Amino acid sequence: MVYAPLVKLYRVLTTWLLGQRAMPKAYIWGLQRLSNNLRRSLIWSFWPSLAVALLAVGCQAPQVPQYETTPPPSAVRIAYLDGKSLNMMHTDGTSVTLLARDLEPTECAPYYVSPDGQWIAFRQAEDGLWVTATAGGAPSMVSDAIAGSVSWFPDSSGVVYTLNDDVYAQWLDLSQPPQALAVGGRRYLFPTWSPDGKYIAFLETTSDPDVFNVILIQSDGTGWRTLGTTAPESTERGLCPDIIAWSPDSTRFLVDFGEPSFAFYVSGGSPVQIGAGTSPTNHAWSPDGQSLTYQDESNRLWLVKADGSEHRLLADFPVAQVTWSPQASQVAYVALRGSDTVLEIVNVETGEARALTTADQYVESSPDWTPDGAILVFVRHSTPGQSAAGIWRVPADGSASPQRLALVGEAIQVFAIR
Question: Which pairing describes strands 244-246 and 199-205: parallel, antiparallel, or unpaired?
Fold first, then answer.
């Protein structure tokens, strides 16, 4: 026991003092009482202190690792779907590895890569939620029921997900049971961790089917707060996990579900509208958290400050599938000019645009950057009929022509194993 050395010390001290013949009886009685009281107080204070300590450990936010900003190319991988199979390969197209089969086809990507790149969670058709290591090995079942949207703990130690309209957290250590974070109420949607691991934001249905509460809780499920509401004019957009997008500094999050969209602050107060026009959508945070891009009702591309000010037009034509470079200096997108599609990048400071592909027999989609910002990986389809033309890569500086990495592939994601 941790209190034993202290009790022993006081026993030795009082025994020695009691052995001094010249000590008055009142002093002797006082020392005996002090020794007994101290022992009782140490014993009775130990267990509550231990309980508090254990609770504190259980309620701590995930310890978010500090990763290298640009991991070496040898650590970068591409995850993608080949039909219903989840595969992984190196960025040069080599070392193709099958990670899982029979993924559930959904409008959103049916898999989720952990922040450290060591794990992938995926939904299997009619067979629940699974997790597998990117290094290989047998998958583990997280839930035997069909889970909804999934978000990784920032430290990659587990996932938070929706199940039967409720929100649960499950650690990779499956000996720990799932923890209910939001249950027994209305329907809950899109639970998403803050980057610093302290909060989880999600939406809650209300008695009005067209209005959703915006909810914020602490990572242990306490501190429930309603920050406001969102009311989409339509539900035509796919209900994917990126509906809620946190700022990199975890001070606010964007709910890209209402029309218009709003940023809600952890500190409270009035939410801020992000984007001008009647229905700005498809917002994306810059990696430094200073700006966002969004598309207007004509799908033109705009840049706006994080506080909702200083709107600037970046592309005066329809675009799709916008993605920021890791250095926050450029934005890649698919330019839609009539029947032609071209992969382009634009410098957000100067507005200078560069085409990385040409208007040809291909249709480009799903661009994603390597962590060093040097390469864009994307999907191509052939026209007509949209038959698969595989996964390609191209240098972001346009110094070389696109190179094909795989003959088939969809729903790509570039990630680093850290």
Answer: unpaired
Domain of residue 393, residue span: 73-101+318-418
Cα separation, 42 vs 10, whole angstroms: 12
Angstrom distances, CA of residue 126 to CA of 26, 123, 146, 147, 170: 79, 8, 7, 10, 20
Mean per-residue pLDDT pooled into runs of 10, the chain (418 residues): 39 40 39 42 39 39 77 94 94 96 76 96 85 93 85 94 90 92 86 93 90 92 93 58 87 84 92 80 91 91 91 94 94 88 94 90 91 95 71 95 93 94
In this structure, the answer to whether residues 16 and 80 fall within a common structural domain is no
Same domain, 354 and 410: yes
Place of tokens 């590895």: 97
Specify whether 31 is located in the same domain as 79: no
Number of neighbouring beta carbons within 10 Å of residue 326 = 16
Which helix (H) or strand (E) segment holds residue 136: the answer is none
Considering the entire predicted model, what is its pTM? Answer: 0.81
